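Researcher: Structure prediction, please.
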Amino acid sequence: MSSREAQAQKESTVNGADDVEAASRTFAHEPGEGEPWWWMGGLATIKATSEQTGGRYTLVEILVPEFPMEESLLHVHHFEDEGFYILEGEMTFYVGEQTIKARPGSFLFGPKDIPHAFSVDSGPARLLFILSPAGMEGGIREMGDPARELSIPPPPEEPPDEAEMGRLMSIAAKYGGEMLGPPPGR
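Model: Predicted structure follows.
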């Protein structure tokens, strides 16, 4: 167990003191509210952070354009499990050895240490990432740029060069992630 996982587990212990603390952390966001970042070609709006949830989970609303699996990035999280709840669009997920089609109302679970990727077959797609324990929002902040508007960012003029990929991979590693390349067989 990593130190971040141990800390999250310790923080998630429920007792009388935690109930009082949880009540003091109550918060709400209206539609369009949160912390918006242009991240990995999409708009990532952080809705719930480690600080707000006592380390239990991070919730991020994602808006991404249509793109094929060939442009997807197979990656793995070593610190947290990840859930995906589809709000809009049609998507294909590659999780471990499974290929799963998803549409609005679909939920998928990606356990930590299992490589995964997704594509947007019909979009744009809007979905929720639920990451537990919390902390991945730090990676989004470090990899992304503050969104100038609540929309998908303009496409990059060229793909990331070797130096930029090295920077992204270093940040991913800091947060327990690995970028593995395209999904197998793609």
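Model: Residues 11-16 have pLDDT under 50 and may be disordered.
Researcher: Thanks, that helps.
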